[in-house]
Amino acid sequence: MATIQWYPGHMAKAKKEVQENLKKVDVVIELRDARIPESSKNPMLEKIIANKPHIIVLNKVDLADSKQIHAWKKHLTNDQTTVMTLNSKQPKAMKTFKKELAEYTAPIRQKWLNKGLKHKAIRLMIIGIPNVGKSTFINQFTKQKKAAVGNKPGVTKGQQWIRIDKNFELLDTPGILWPKFEDKEVATRLALTGAIKETHFYKDDAALYALDFLGHYYPDYIPNQYAISPEEMNPPYPELLMTLTQKMGFIDDYEKASERMIKDLQDGKLGPITLDRVEDYNDGAMMDE
Ligand SMILES: Nc1nc2c(ncn2[C@@H]2O[C@H](COP(=O)(O)OP(=O)(O)OP(=O)(O)O)[C@@H](O)[C@H]2O)c(=O)[nH]1
User: Fold this and answer.
1) Largest CB tally within 10 Å, which of 86, 165, 215, 217?
2) Where are the bilayer-spanning segments (predicted)?
3) Would you list the domain boundaries of the chain?
4) Hey, is 62 helix, strand or coil?
5) 144 CA from centroid of ligand 1 (Å)
């Protein structure tokens, strides 16, 4: 669980570090949580990336709703941005990702060759909000390729380029940026996916939000997991939370029940979930299949 506290000074420093590193890379790989493709973005990253080739990786795809993932992929793709999906924990998925990356970067390499430049590795960096899976990604991506290229001039002290193969080098330190947590709904979705620590306030608030959300989009998840009848999966949700609290054996400790439910949701035990609904960001229409 991420414990980063974002203060204005800290945010300015993080932004500056990312901007410095961006100057040294050819392609930016931004990790987002596939369950919250909008809420897990940094509000100003697109601006600071400027015209760099940008790959959005919807990570933790194993925990998200596949129909929504498909639609989000289309929604986020544009001339400068390509979208890929990944389960960073799965070696096979990483292999496929590497193939897609090689295809995506082939035109960049070709452009260099056409200009008469000699072959060099494409430099990559990972960026993302806390807990989105940056370390897991880097570990899996660089598996058995731990040989660092060594400190090179211009790289922040302590950072190294890791040579993946003759075509790619990756900055070993990811860029960490903040999400748009001042928006209450975004903050709740971040808490429900484990991107920010749920405070005391968030626990029951987030649990009630989750019940309302699940009742609307995935009405069988709660009845299946906690053995209540489908008819009980209805508002008022504070009452439902009390029923669940008793079912879980917590008597009247609804905070404990909230915590359990949030953990089960975060771990994917309830089923695959997408909290950011593409139709809400897309003039109300679900995109074509
Ligand atoms: N199910 C699933 N879990 C993942 C995936 N990628 C990462 N995780 C889990 O997500 C949690 C956070 O992963 P990290 O790699 O530590 O995330 P990070 O972005 O480096 O986190 P910070 O250091 O807080 O910035 C861990 O429990 C990982 O096991 C994925 O694709 N699927």
Assistant:
1) 86
2) none
3) 8-176, 198-281
4) helix
5) 20
